[in-house]
Amino acid sequence: MRFEKPVPLTTIASLIGAEIVGTSSGMVRGINEIHKVEEGDLVFVDHPKYYATCINSAATYIIINTPTEFPPGKSLLIVDEPFEAYQKIVQHFRPFEPVVKAISDSATVGATSVIMHGAVIGNHVTIGEHCVIHPNVVIMDHCVLGDHVIIQAGTVIGSDAFYYNKKTNREIYFKKMLSGGRVVIEDYVEIGANCTIDRGVSSDTILGAGTKLDNLVHIGHDTVTGKNCLFAAQVGVAGAVTMEDEVIMWGQVGVNKTITIGKGAEVFGQSGVVSSIEGGKRYWGTPAEDYTKKRKEVAWIKRIPELWEKVMGMSDR
Question: Coiled-coil intervals in this record (predicted)?
Fold first, then answer.
């Protein structure tokens, strides 16, 4: 999540009640998760297992619950509860704003775009030119649409991420991690009816230019698709997935979190993609494997009864 303008580190420390270890003169550009951080960003960590990863990431400022060694040029912000500090920062810089009318006064809609009856356009949304937003579409706060985007009826863009902080020492184990990210939809994207595209937790969920989604497709938080991808009905993609250009997924494909789908990969219906796969190949099954190899396996499985009869017949001799 990028701040509107850089914020003094001392201001952040005061907001969350943190002790600064290291230089205190820095300017913070935003707050992000570990897999999305850039120089000038904040990141939080509250478990020793991930200390080294966070401290040695691109992040310049680390919210942490204990002093530890860190590289030159970085600073630690020491607090008792780093997760709660993250929540406070998101609440402060991207506070909840109720949507009180169909098209928010703070939204920007291109003069040549059409918003049909029953659609809701949230706060600080930007919609480009020549877009068509069909009835009962909901576009939540801070989302960005390019030009020539079509969204069919009933779709929700920018719903909160399905993302929870788990602590078993609380009465309620799973605590919602506030979503400060956006959905960014590039030019010439078409989205079918009753799709759900979650906003990023602290970064952006992105649909690349020319990508097409059928009905009932779900795209999880912080997932980034390349250009000219094609997803058939009931595809479900988990969070923080990277899909390169020209990926095709047929009906009811499920994709695991935090993996990469290579350019031009084609995944056949009802497959489960559980780990990263190379581009330029066809895949099928669960776990998804090379299509030709999987077809041969199925052919052999079908022959098991025949082979069994032969084996049993030979053993009777």
Answer: none
Closest residue by Cα to residue 180 from 107, 103, 89, 247: 89
Contacts of 65 (CB under 8 A, 6+ apart): 46, 78, 79, 80, 81, 82
Position 252: which residue type? Answer: Q
Using the predicted structure, report yes or no on whether residue 36 has a pLDDT greater than 90.
no
- Alpha-carbon distance 208 to 300, whole Å? 40
Say which residue the tokens 């759900």 belong to: 196
Report the alpha-carbon distance of residue 101 to residue 166 in Å, rounded: 36
Q: What is the reported pLDDT for 317?
A: 57
> Per-residue pLDDT tens for 253-282?
999 999 999 999 999 999 999 999 999 999
| Euclidean distance between CA atoms 143 and 230, whole angstroms | 21
Pull the structure tokens for residue 134.
């069909």
What digits encode the pLDDT tens for the residues 187-203? 999 999 999 999 999 89
* Rounded Cα–Cα distance for residues 148 and 133 (Å): 10
Can you tell me the distance from the alpha carbon of 185 to that of 205, in angstroms, rounded to the nearest whole number?
8
Taking the model in full, what pTM does it have?
Answer: 0.91
DSSP string, 161-179: P--EEE-TTSSSSEEEPP-
CA 226 to centroid of chain Cα atoms: 13
Q: Is 163 exposed, middle or buried (0-12, 13-18, 19+ CB in 10 A)?
A: buried
C-alpha span between 116 and 188 (Å, rounded): 19
Angle at CA of residue 253, ends 249 and 259, nearest 5°: 80
3-class DSSP state of 87: helix
What domains does the chain contain, in order, with CATH numbers? 2-93 (3.40.1390.10), 108-293 (2.160.10.10)
- Told to judge if 221 belongs to the known catalytic residues of this protein, a careful annotator would answer yes
Q: What are the Cα distances from residue 71, in Å, to 23, 41, 64, 68, 171?
A: 12, 15, 15, 10, 37
